[in-house]
Amino acid sequence: MSAAQKGKKAKVGGDKPHETEVAKERRSGVDALRARLAVEAEIIVHEKMPAKILELTKVLEEGDLWKYPTHDDVVKAVSQSTGGGDKKRKIDELSPRKHSNATEIEGAANGVEVKSDFVFASNSAILQQQEYLKSEIQDCLQMLSKVKIWIHLNIPKVEDGNNFGVSIQEDTVNELTKAEDTSFSLLEAVNKYFMTRGKLVSRMAKYPGLHDYAKSVQEVDRRERVNLCLSLYDLRNNYFILFDSITKNMDKIKKPRSAHDLPFT
Prior knowledge:
Structural class: mainly alpha
Low-confidence stretches: 8-13, 82-115
Number of strands: 2
Strand content: under 5%
Distance between the termini: 39 Å
Order of helices and strands: HHEHEHHHH
């Protein structure tokens, strides 16, 4: 058999040249995964996204927890240690210069044994809002990841001209990436809130006579509640914008190039 006949046979058979049986099996598995991702992505766009839009809208409009605060929450100690007497114990009192017990000093240095006379509770309303928002953000990130990889896999090979549909795909991927970045930023803001509040509460415990520290904690809590409400609105709006954009351009996203779009045909 001549080389030309062998090449023709390989082309008719559809196998890639020099492809081993293992490579064929792997490619078959990848193609099956691609098909499954396409089905899951379309379910997300057509079913899960509109469901999330309606669900979050209902929560924002009907949930008392997600209404903007009209007053400052009370910040107070929920318990007070009675074993230490009336005198408050400070961290610097456990320094080597002022204490002879090496075990207690070591515990204080490791942040294990040092105890405060006051115990302050976290803001319960904010904790509930954060737990709900974090759960929704995690669901959102999972869905956006699947839709983004599906669109990426639909981008055709690079060619000259007829790239309008490809530009729509790339713009949609950029919008999905922005939504992901926004979601990550919301998660980072939760940790920053606790760090800021913790420092203020420790100051309030150390200087109970300064009411400005207590007021600053109230302001931080109120700002966080407003921020969480806005974050949930942003999450709902991101779903809305992406759902609207993807469904409007679904034909170009699934098939960016078609025969009638080619010039001079």
